Structures are given as C-alpha cells and as structure tokens.
C-alpha cells in the first residue's frame, strides 16, 4: 500500500509540475513582455518588465539601434559630444520622418540618447495616442519640449550629482498639440481638472512604466511646467522614480 501511495504522490507531483511548465510556456508565448528573461520587443504592448528592459539598453547602443530598426523607427545617429567632467554623449539619435514613430517635436531636430528615444516611441504608441483618442477623439501631432542635452548638475545644486540631461538621457516635455488644434500644457492644465488634466496625469503615469524617472508638478515647484522623463543608468533591476 505504501508503494502505491508513493507512486500516486509522484504522479500528482509530476502532473503539477507539468501544469506549471505548460502555464509558463503559455505565458511566454502570449505575454513574453511580462517575463524578465525574454527579449525586448518595442512593438509589443507594455509588459511588467518593459521599462526595465528599456533601461538595460543604456549600455548597448548597437542593440538599442537594432531595436529601433526592428520596430520600424527611422533615425539618424548623432556625432558624439565631448565635454569636461561628466557631460557629453556617444549614443544619441534623432528621429527621422517616414517610420512608425510619427509625433513631431518642437523645437525640431531633437537629439536624445537612444534608450530615451526607444522609450519615447513606446510611450507614443501605447500611452499618448490611446489617451488622446479617449479624452479628445484626436491624436497627438507634436510634443513641445524644453530640451534634452544640457551640461548641468541637478536643479538647484551648484555641486553634487549630474543631471541626466548632461548625457542626453532626459527630456522635459512641456505641452502636447493635437490633430484637432487642442493644446494641452503642463503649466496651464495640470491642476485645472477636466479632460486636459486627466490626459496629462494619464500620460505621466503611463510614462512611469517606461522611463527610469518621471517627475511632474506633483514632485516640486521646479517641475510645475514640464514632465521630466529620463532613462537613468541604474540597470535593469535598479530603483525607479515616479512622482
């Protein structure tokens, strides 16, 4: 009888393990973006590990460019910028027309570090455009920004840590212009209620799934007029900030 129980127990355990294996296989097939060990796909819906995989592109310029190409994003590589101290970059790109990334930037000819560009494209497809359709029945045509690369330390500090802007790993977004003529401004609309405020809060929160750091007017007075988006080099499992 004991031998029979052992056999039955072994069969049950094997069945459970087989079920777990099939569940994992099904998950990998249907939602690989929710698993930490699968390859990043910019064209896939946002998953539990998409943001961390985007952050992992910081040390892989060639791999980042390959991801953009695979997703149909056209870009031009920018020449390196070298400066004293911690400033400068070697991995910046500029979106080019004709690809799957279609939002324009104003001022034009924006250059950002490649991991930021990758996150901006995913943000456009999965967050910005769906939110604009829900709230306004229109699409985002232009992002107004306050710049990316700037050789400076963190705001308000004459010394200490360098800003992510010092390596083009950040972008400050001030407003959105929509296809129906609507303009949504962080400064004017964040606390005003209604569809514009709802849109801004939604795209801020959606950005938190893709960028290492997202700072809004909820963070402090210095960010009252923009959303700060950066891909700080903290590694795939590093801490993330969303305020």
Kindly describe this structure.
- There is one protein chain.
- With 243 residues, the chain is an alpha+beta fold.
- It has two domains: 1-30; 42-242, no CATH class.
- It has six helices and twelve strands.
- Strands 5, 7, 8, 9, 10, 11 and 12 form a seven-stranded mixed β-sheet that branches. A three-stranded antiparallel β-sheet has the order 1-4-6. The chain has a two-stranded antiparallel ribbon with strand order 2-3.
- A hairpin with a 5-residue loop joins strand 2 (81-82) and strand 3.
- Helix 3 runs parallel beside helix 4 (114-136) and helix 4 (114-136) packs antiparallel against helix 6 (194-207).
- The longest helix has 29 residues, at 2-30.
- The N and C termini lie far apart (62 Å).
- Residues 18-23 have low confidence and may be disordered.
Rg over alpha carbons: 22 Å
General form: globular
Low-confidence stretches: 18-23
**Percent of residues in β-strands:** 15-25%
Organism: Sphingomonas hengshuiensis
Domain Extensin-like C-terminal: 64-243
Protein name: Extensin
InterPro entries: Extensin-like_C
